[in-house]
Amino acid sequence: MTLVSHYKSSRCAISFELFPPKTAAGMDALAKSIEQLNQFSPSYFTCTYGAGGSTRDTTLDVVEKVKELTGLPVASHLTCVGSTVEQLESFLQDAASRSVDYIVALRGDPPQGSDQFEAVEGGFRYANELVELIHDRFPQFSMAVAGYPEVHQEATSAKSDLENLKRKVDAGADIIITQLFYNNDDFYRFRDACVAEGISVPIIPGILPVTNFKQAERIASMCKAEIPSTLAKTMSQNDDPKYQFNVGVDHARNQTLNLIENQVEGIHYYVLNKSEAAAKLLNGLELAAG
């Protein structure tokens, strides 16, 4: 089953993104979250991949565990950061041996302390090069790539950002999963621009519920995502954790409902390894695996 096949149903397919825990206790807690999230019939789970390969083995451990617990397809992230082509191929061979289904192919962020990406000797500089490698050498993997509704922070313009995205799609990407956003109009503008650019693969919006305003501000600043002024004002007026959780989840639920009304093919949720927010916002919605 390819990634595209999940989005051919008339229903809105959902997926969840996890990250590798640092401790055994974290892995146990993640297993409980996975079991709760699985009740919402996701199409697949993804797991992030640490900068410079710092979580390479743990990422594959997580996706193996998810597959064991759910029986669902799984995707591993893979970045170009700090890796030679030989190391990337080694990871992909390991992923294949562990029955990973999909790869989320990314250039990756610059190493901590640097504001500029630099390829290692013998490595790749651009995500489309990684996509091309996987397409040519590991065709068993269906691939997702990243899109940026509010423009990638290193892009010189929205047009150049779209041109780069099209290069990734033309190199063999099957779907686009977007960076998080909090204003759906940003996504709709991006989707229309992709169509105008000749991009025809499924474009899946990525949603991260705001459950802690300070944390949301930090994450949003890292990826240059704007938090709507009304949401910021409402959340900042009360620092009670339960209040902030409820306001943020309600916003994400309203985003979800509006996206469904505007006929998105699926939604990808960044759950930060916790199930409570996603469970509350999805409860009662008619969403199921595509």
TrEMBL record:
Example of a GO cellular component annotation carried by this entry: cytosol
Record-stated family: Belongs to the methylenetetrahydrofolate reductase family.
Necessary cofactors: FAD
Keyword DNA-binding: no
Enzyme Commission number(s): 1.5.1.54
Catalytic activity: (6S)-5-methyl-5,6,7,8-tetrahydrofolate + NAD(+) = (6R)-5,10-methylene-5,6,7,8-tetrahydrofolate + NADH + H(+)
UniProt KW keywords: Amino-acid biosynthesis, FAD, Flavoprotein, Methionine biosynthesis, NAD, Oxidoreductase
InterPro entries hit by this protein: FAD-linked_oxidoreductase-like, Mehydrof_redctse-like, MTHF_reductase_bac
MF-aspect GO terms: FAD binding; methylenetetrahydrofolate reductase (NADH) activity
Protein's recorded name: Methylenetetrahydrofolate reductase
Domain of life, source organism: Bacteria
Biological pathway: One-carbon metabolism; tetrahydrofolate interconversion; Amino-acid biosynthesis; L-methionine biosynthesis via de novo pathway
Single biological process term from Gene Ontology: methionine biosynthetic process
